[in-house]
Amino acid sequence: MAKSWKEWEKPLLEIDEALAKAKEIAKNCAAEERAAAEERIAYYEQRRDNIIKVMYSRLGAWEKVLVARAEPRPYALDYIGGICTDFVELGGDRRIGDDHAVVGGPAMFNGRPVMILGQQKGRNIQDRQYRNFAMAKPEGYRKAIRLMEMANRCKMPVLSFVDTPAADPGVESESRGISEAIAASILAMFDLEVPSIAVIIGEGGSGGAIGLAAASKVLMQEHAVYSVIPPEGCAAILWRQPAEGAKAAAALRLTAQNALEWGLIDGIINEPFGAAHRDWNEAMSNVKTAVQDAFLSLEGLSGDQIKAQRYEKFRKMGQFVDGLVGTN
To answer: What pLDDT is stored for residue 328 in this prediction?
Structure first.
């Protein structure tokens, strides 16, 4: 069992490397060698596509977790830069300081002002430490609350990008009330009198994700995951073996398809061939179209209607018909 996305996609990464070298050779080779070089490029591209087709046709829950964690996958700031304009990042919670795991501020989406929130991962070790691996502390959620209140006052719809393994579990966060901050953030989302859209773009882990995902419409990318706990944490609690993450992932039913089946999300956003990290432009175009459609579906509703729709949507979650469970 692969333990990381790099290990799982190793055959593809090796072909990508060979393809890049073949393209470099083709660019600098003599004219009489060009045909052979282009034939080699076509061979590698065909081989890559065949492997992608096979690997992505049989994704299990654990493989979905690995793809959702893929390091080249677009992060929140990438989507903000790709589908919005005039983003002005605001910082600080007016109490403790600024949490760089949460980014937010006003921006323009399709020519209208919106309030953006997002959980941001890092590209390298320094950036990951700076972003605290996208695990927000209490001040991150309180910053989000401050921006949501601003959005409510200014009648700006809220668009949030969810991508976190969980909230920060450290002693400092516990001592500053991380649970209360998450709960307050969820409450603030329910109090919004403006439409809110949440897009799960990678990992939607634990209450740390729900703090920014209690929205009017919750969308999920095809290979993202959404669960009450990271699989390794679940395995450590149930079997005292974090290495049993794959087993836990299957039990958690954390894929987008599972979430839609259980009524936890409102739609799945298709990803490009080979997942979002292989074609950022198509991934962003798909997300932009889905967000635009979601906002259009909420147009014309009053503040009270928006709050009522959100409340009823979440009240229906977890309901089941007595007698249809465990009847075998």
So the answer is: 38
Tokens of 91: 């910082």
Residue 255 near residue 262, CB atoms below 8 Å: no
Q: Which two tokens stand for residue 45?
A: 């591209």
Q: At what angle do helices 10-28 and 34-57 cross, to 10 degrees?
A: 160
| Residues linked to residue 218 through DSSP beta bridges, in sequence order | 198
- 141: three-class secondary structure by DSSP: helix
Helices and strands per DSSP (H, E), number in the chain: 15, 7
Cβ neighbors of 215 (< 8 A, separation 6 or more) are 158, 160, 189, 196, 197, 198, 310
- Predicted confidence (pLDDT) at residue 272 exceeds the cutoff of 70: yes
More confident residue, 321 or 23: 23
Q: Which of 204, 189, 210, 201 is nearest to 290 (CA)?
A: 201
Helix (H, G, I), strand (E, B) or coil at 77: helix
3-state secondary structure of 74: coil
Bridge partners of 161, per DSSP, are 118, 199
Exposure string for 256-294, b = 16+ CB within 10 A, e = fewer: bebbeeeebbbebbebbebbbbbbbeebbebbbebbeeb
